[in-house]
Amino acid sequence: MFFAHVNSPNPKALVHADPLRFGDSFDRECASVKRNDVLASTRRMNPIPTARAFWDNAAETYDRDFTETVVGKTRRKAVWRELDRLFGMGQRVLELNCGTGVDALHLAERGVKVFACDISSRMVKLARERVVSAGFGNAVEFQVLATEEIGKLDTEIPFDGVFSNFSGLNCVQNLAATADDVARLVRPRGRILLCMIGRFVPWDIVWYGIHGDFRRAVQRLGRGTSRNIAGGFMTVHYPSVREIAGAFGPGFALRKWGGVGIGVPPSYMEHWARRLPRITSGLAAADLFLGSVPLLRNMADCVLLEFERRV
User: Fold this and answer.
1) Of 305, 306, 308, which is closest to residue 189 (Cα–Cα)?
2) Measured between alpha carbons, how far is 217 from 209 in angstroms, rounded to an integer?
3) Distance (Å, whole) CA 61 – CA 76
4) How far apart are CA 268 and CA 180, in angstroms?
5) Cβ–Cβ < 8 Å for 177, 239
6) Is the dihedral angle over the CA atoms 311, 86, 264, 6 positive or is it negative?
7) Which domains does the chain have, with CATH numbers?
């Protein structure tokens, strides 16, 4: 089983897990985390225009650089396994940072109604084209909207759940504020599934260490990484599972979490994944087990968390 249960009621080298490469009672433990410290590096400047420009620029090549890669397919397949378990026919789901619409289409094909948002108008354009060309245009509604702005959504009927894949939430400045907005939009006992960047990744340490890039080898162990992109600052944060659960704790209970990408290496080793397809397939199969092992799941490229809306 992939998850471990919690005991509680143009960039040519775009990497999904870190856009900056481009240019047990958890309730009790998480209560001790100060929500204002979850993302302590919030800046005075508005980061949304910079992030929008970044993802607009990445949109045209995103599928080629990640979605259609061997590593990308193994990552998404692992996430879909849990997504399919949570949401099904007739449910209504809010998707944050929908990208080019691959996940929205997958949900629509299973009879799920999707309201999909993304900060990038180009991403949304490509996502809409994908869904419409597949014949599911009536099942998915799109809106250009940054995750930090979802509080603007006005819905009389709460969503059955919320989904965010890969690194979108790692680019949010104030995760606790976003959690509050999500809580307002989800029905009681509704589920949310969040895939975020992992913090301790041995693949990073070994790969970049061998290549002499020691800063990048350990950068995920820090609070976040900021760089100047297109005249503005964009920060990618690396909160721990405890910190993520602390941010969502007031409105949600963490039910399960696991690792995605322990044996299968990150996207920067795509050339090896293509050269060694049988080994990659074997590692992907092993990840189904490794992702639920308490110590090993902390070493994953991404972490996948399932929360339940408190009544």
Assistant:
1) 308
2) 6
3) 17
4) 34
5) no
6) positive
7) 4-309 (3.40.50.150)
How far, CA to CA in Å, does 89 sit from each of 111, 112, 165, 190? Answer: 4, 5, 20, 15
> 237 has which bridge partners?
224
DSSP secondary structure letters along 230-255 = TTEEEEEE---HHHHHHHHTTTEEEE
Residues 6+ apart with CB under 8 A from 182: 94, 150, 162, 192, 248, 251, 252
Q: What is the phi/psi pair of residue 95, to 5°?
A: -105, 125
Per DSSP bridges, beta strands 140-144 and 113-118 are parallel
- Letter string b/e over residues 182-200, b meaning 16 or more CB atoms within 10 A of that residue's CB: bbebbeeebbbbbbbbbbe
Q: Is the pLDDT of residue 112 over 90?
A: yes
Cα–Cα distance, 79 to 291 (Å, whole number)? 11
**Which residue carries 């350990």 as its tokens?**
218
Q: Is 4 exposed, middle or buried (0-12, 13-18, 19+ CB in 10 A)?
A: middle
Q: From CA 174, how far away is CA 179, in angstroms rounded?
A: 9
Q: How far apart are the first and last CA of the chain?
A: 27
Strands (E), 133-223: 140-144, 159-164, 186-197
Question: How do residues 181-229 score in pLDDT, each as one tens digit?
Answer: 999 999 999 999 999 999 999 999 999 999 999 999 999 998 777 665 5
CA 249 to mean position of chain CA atoms: 18
Distance between CA atoms of residues 197 and 297, nearest Å: 12
Written as six digits, the tokens of 304 are 């996948």
CB contact set of 276 (below 8 Å; sequence gap of 6+): none
Contact partners, residue 114, CB within 8 Å, separation at least 6: 92, 93, 94, 95, 104, 107, 108, 139, 140, 141
Q: What is this structure's pTM? A: 0.85
User: Quick one: average pLDDT of 278-288?
Assistant: 95
Please, are residues 307 and 255 in contact by the beta-carbon 8 Å criterion?
yes
